[in-house]
Amino acid sequence: MFSNKKSLTLISFVGLTSFALVFNTFIAGLYIIGQDFGIKPDLMGVILGVYFIGFAISSSFNNSWSEKFGIKPVFIAGYAANFLCLLTLPSVQILPLFYLIMFIMGLGGGIMESATTTLMLKLHSDNTRGIVTLSQAFFCIGAIAGGFIAGVAFGNNISWRVVVYIVAGVSSIGLVLQGFADYGIAKTEPSAGGTEEKMSLHDFLSPVFIALCVLLFIYVYYETAIASWIPYTMKSYFGTTEPVPQWTLSGFWVMMIIGRLLLTKVPEQWNSITMITILYGVLVPITLLLLFVKNSGAAVVLYLMFGGACAVIWPLIVAVIGSIFKKNTGTFVGLAIAAGATGAGLAPILSGITIENWGVVPHFIVVGVMIVLSFLITLKLKNKIKA
User: Fold this and answer.
1) Secondary structure element (H or E) that encloses residue 191, with its range
2) H-helix or E-strand containing 179?
3) pTM of the full predicted structure?
C-alpha cells in the first residue's frame, strides 16, 4: 500500500500526468474530431466547454464529497469515470452523446485535479508554493506527451478513435495506483496547517478571495483560449501541416514545465503577487505581437514565449490561497479551482464563436484585454497580500 507522504505524492503526480495527457491529446485533435463530425469551430469549442462544466461542478463539491465518502473512494470515482469514458468515446457516432460523455469525463477530471491539489496542500503545508508548482510541472509532462502522441498519430493518418484507446490505456495506470493508496495520513480534518470548520456565505465574500478567484478565472480562460486553438490556428491561419500544429502545442507545454521547474528554485520569501504582476507585464507585448505576425515560424516562437511567461501564474495564485486561508483550505482551493474551470469551460466555446464569426485576430484581442485586466487586478492586490 502507498501510505506515506512521499508515496502518496508520487502517485498523485502520476495521476496528474495521465490526466493532462488525456486532456491535451483531445485539444491537439480537436479540429480533427470536428472534421469527423462535420462541425465548425464554434461547436468544436462546445466539446471542451461541456467538459469544463463537469470539471467546475466536481471541483466545487470535491472537498465535501471527500469528507462524506472518504478521499480514496472519491479519487477512484474520478479516475474510473475518466477511464470508462475513454473506452466508450471511440464508438460514439452521435454528437449529443459525445457531449454527454465529455461532461462525465469533466466530472472525473475535476476530481483528479482539485482533489490532488488539495491533498498536496495538506501533505506539504510547509511549502505550499513549491509543491503546487511541482505538481503542475508533472501536469505539463502529460500535456507535452499528449501533443506529441497526437502529432505522431495524426501525421501518420491514424484515426483519433484509435488514439483515444491508446490514452485510455495510459490513464488506467492512475486508476490502478489509486487501488493501492491509503490516505490515512491525510484525513480531511487537518488542512494545510489548519482545520475544516463550519463556514457561512460571509467567509467566501472576502474581497481578497473574490479577487483571487477572478484572477484564476481569467487566467484559465485565456490559457485555455490560447492552448485549445493552437493546433487549429497553426493549421488554418498560419498555414502549417501535421505534425507542426500538435508539436507547437507540445512546445507550449515544454515552456510551461521549464517555467514551473524554475519556480521551485525561487525562495518562498519572494512575493507571489509581485511575480504575477511582472509576468503579466511580459504577456502583454507577446499577445500584441500575435496580432500582427503572419509567419508560421514567428507564431511558433510567440506561442512558446506565451507558454513560458504564463507558466507559474496558476500555481502562484493557488499557493497564495493556500497560504492565506489555512482553515478550510480544501474548500477555498476547491472553489477557486472551480472558478478557473468555469473560465476553461467558457473559453473554448466563446473563442470558437469568435474565430468562426470574426476570425483569429479578434480572438487574440480578447486574450490581450483579459491579460491587461489581470495586470490591473494584481496591481491592486500587491499592497494587500504579502504571500
Assistant:
1) strand 190-191
2) none
3) 0.75
Q: How many helices (H) and strands (E) does the chain have?
A: 16, 2
The ranges of the chain with pLDDT < 70 are: 1-2, 41-42, 186-204, 268, 326-330, 383-387
Q: How far are the Cα atoms of 29, 148, 162, 243 from residue 35, in angstroms, in the given order?
A: 10, 20, 16, 17
**Which domains, from first to last, does the chain contain?**
5-381 (1.20.1250.20)
Whether residue 44 contacts residue 31, with contact meaning beta carbons closer than 8 Å, is answered with yes
- What is the pLDDT at residue 385? 67
Q: What is the C-alpha separation between 54 and 76, in angstroms, rounded?
A: 17
How many CB atoms within 10 Å of residue 71?
24
Please tell me the distance from the alpha carbon of residue 28 to that of residue 155, in angstroms, as a whole number.
12
pLDDT at 199: 54
- The x, y and z cell numbers of residue 300, run together, are 511558433
The answer to whether 227 and 139 have CB atoms below 8 angstroms apart is no
Grid cell at residue 194: 489548519
SS3 of 39, please?
A: coil
pLDDT, residue 195, reads 47
So what's the pLDDT on residue 374?
A: 92
Is the sign of the CA dihedral 326, 276, 293, 358 positive or negative?
positive
Element (H, E) at 130: helix 128-155
- Local structure of 190: helix, strand or coil: strand
Q: What is the pLDDT of residue 190?
A: 47
